[in-house]
Amino acid sequence: MSSLLSALNPEQREAVALPHQSALVLAGAGSGKTRVLTTRIAHLIQSGQASPHGILAVTFTNKAAKEMLSRISAMLPINTRGMWTGTFHGLCNRMLRAHHQDAGLPQTFQILDSADQLAVIKRILKSLGADDEKFPARQVQWFINNAKEEGLRASQVETYDDFVRKMVEFYLVYEQQCNKEGVVDFAELLLRNYELLHRNEIVREHYRSRFRHILVDEFQDTSRLQYKWLRLLAGEQTAVFAVGDDDQSIYAFRGANTGNMKEFERDFRISKIIKLEQNYRSHGNILDAANTLIRNNSGRLGKNLWTAEGHGEPIRVYNAPTDFDEAAFVVDEVKSLRAEGVALSQMALLYRSNAQSRVLEHALFNASLPYRVYGGMRFFERQEIKHALAYLRLIANPDDDNALLRVVNFPARGIGMRSLEQVQDDARRQGGSIWEAMLQKCGRVPASTSETEGNAQARLDGSMAPDKIKKGVEGFVVLIESMRRVCENLPLPEVVDHMLEHSGLLGHYRAEREGADRLENLNELVNAATSFVHEAEDDSLTVFLNHASLEAGEHQAGGGEDALQLMTVHSAKGLEFHSVFLSGLEEGLFPHDNSRNEAGGLEEERRLMYVALTRARRRLYLSFTQSRMLHGQTRYNIPSRFLQEIPDNLLKWLQPVQKARFGSQQPEFRSSGLSGARTQIQESGTQDSAATRWRVGQNVVHAKFGPGVIVNCEGRGADARVEVKFGRAGTKWLLLEYAKLIPA
Ligand SMILES: Nc1ncnc2c1ncn2[C@@H]1O[C@H](COP(=O)(O)OP(=O)(O)OP(=O)(O)O)[C@@H](O)[C@H]1O
Ligand SMILES: [Mg+2]
């Protein structure tokens, strides 16, 4: 037996050494699917059944493709360059480049990202004089991408009413425009390639006879069009080797379709699905937890996993009073794991939503622990946060040119390149800021004396500034001035709040189809400001902005440095770590609130949870918080139902919870396990605040929020807090230790 095969179990070996035929490996997490796929490629080459040139392998990320190539190179001393490996989009792009003429594209065709695509659509709608209330650009974008994903060109979409007819008309003009400019969007990469193969027999036959082996990892997450593309590319002589796990299908919301598995079985005449049941990744307790959890889903294709390893350590559960305590707990554990010799890169910190990373990043930053956000951006580097910070910087100082240029036309407010160039020219000439030049442009202040006389005269009578430029600029100036005026007397969190609403950022992302994540991040910025007010001596806007740029700037670990891995559960797919921290296991967060509105949403969340649990090899931490800051307010949470679906005997509770910590509405957790968390709700409503000098109904004054009245009290000692209804600032929960209330 070759050394490649000897490192595998009999089922894996069978899959790797399968004769030339299509096959489906359906197996749970950590059972070696990716390893089998990679080894099969090496085996095919080593045994002379295929050359690298004859192999196409589809992976889920470019990074996975690179890793696959380096593993193959480690197994065999060969050049893998002729092999095609990559994502569906990457491979389609490669093929279109090679056949750009047949595909009707210029050699140098450019790829439009989602924002570029939207800009093209907006231009088109404007030129057609479309009613932008009836036909918002984003909806048109969605319509076009959806049609493409279904494989339909404008001429093929069925028009059953006037609205759709209009949409199709826009789609048609968009198609023409893209063709004219020689650009393709993401959906187009796939569709164009599909059409090329469909239409052009020579190209199709060329690739069919070239790729006698197509291998697909993470098959459960292929979309309809991707599947159709695969079918077209695979000829009679092509063996398609697909590996996947229906329990890990987590992209249904983006059009992935597990139905593809059933069709694959039929279309490729799969007589026997290969199952792998031995898990090589995780210790027994972790595996048992995952197996038990996923049994709650219906309609599974059904499989089980076992491990030859022992039970290992129990799963550690931490019930944190607040999200800050949760982050502090993670930091402590990471430090002690590191002291035990576990590399930081072997530890992952997972969360359901991107916005959750902020509090965790903050704690890691303060502890000087190097970390890297995998497959995403660190909080303060995210586009929407940078936009929001730019507005805040303008509120603090409108002469900040960089901030101004970043948001002057975001969200779009009709200030074109030409207008901008003109005010920039003015600014340069006068040696002042762009803001000053804008003020002059719309006649807010007299033109500066350094201007030429002619210009100054023109500015005074306004004749040089075309009306359009003036109008756009004026709108922006009025906005910033009004924000500055209103925010002057507001506490920091409300400055952020006001800015988000009035800048138009919230409205912009609300209208975006995939804007939910960005909205969560923006709301998280209000939380950042609220905690900053509690923590910092000087809580002015300027100091907050300094703090944000500090956290944004320097502490992301460099390329080679050993660093803790932070990522969403979605980006953790396919990866494994010695230790995994899964935070925020609370109802509404995980399962996410959004899942309630979608059919099958909860089951998809459970599959995500299954993915999360099965990333851990040796140690798994699950944590949840009793309260978490949400939009600047403390929210009380109940633990995720997924925690309850894991048998108690696999869990070790790290911290007994103090009783009577919360008021009557709050769940009380028993230290012995989850059954307590499931059922016990403290009945008494005991509040020890009577011992303090605060009572419900009392009038108080807060240094920033002004006068208010206490409507609720709870907690004791350092945790004592009150809910105060302020005349101006609304209702807020405040920690007494920090709030420094004065009786009125
Ligand atoms: N026969 C084996 N002997 C030893 N280790 C193995 C064997 N098969 C797989 N492994 C190891 O088990 C781990 C999980 O394998 P792999 O990542 O291929 O699983 P997977 O099924 O692709 O998981 P996922 O569903 O999470 O993508 C890897 O570290 C792999 O090297
Ligand atoms: Mg895998």
UniProtKB/TrEMBL annotation:
Q: Kindly state which keywords UniProt assigns to this record, in alphabetical order.
A: ATP-binding, DNA-binding, Helicase, Hydrolase, Isomerase, Nucleotide-binding
Chain positions recorded as ATP binding sites? 27-34
Q: By what name is this protein known?
A: DNA 3'-5' helicase
The stretch of residues making up the signal peptide is none
Q: What residues does the UvrD-like helicase C-terminal domain cover?
A: 284-574
State if Isomerase is listed as a keyword.
yes
Give the GO biological process terms. Answer: recombinational repair
Q: What is its EC number?
A: 5.6.2.4
Organism, scientific name:
Nitrosospira briensis
Matches recorded under InterPro entries: DExx_box_DNA_helicase_dom_sf, DNA_helicase_UvrD-like_C, DNA_helicase_UvrD/REP, P-loop_NTPase, UvrD-like_ATP-bd
Report one GO cellular component.
DNA helicase complex
Query: Which residues are in the UvrD-like helicase ATP-binding domain?
Result: 6-283
Q: Does the keyword Transport apply?
A: no
GO function term, MF aspect, one: DNA binding
| Source superkingdom | Bacteria
The similarity annotation says: Belongs to the helicase family. UvrD subfamily.
Which parts of this chain are annotated as the region Disordered? 665-690
Its UniProt entry gives the catalysed reaction(s) as: Couples ATP hydrolysis with the unwinding of duplex DNA by translocating in the 3'-5' direction; ATP + H2O = ADP + phosphate + H(+)
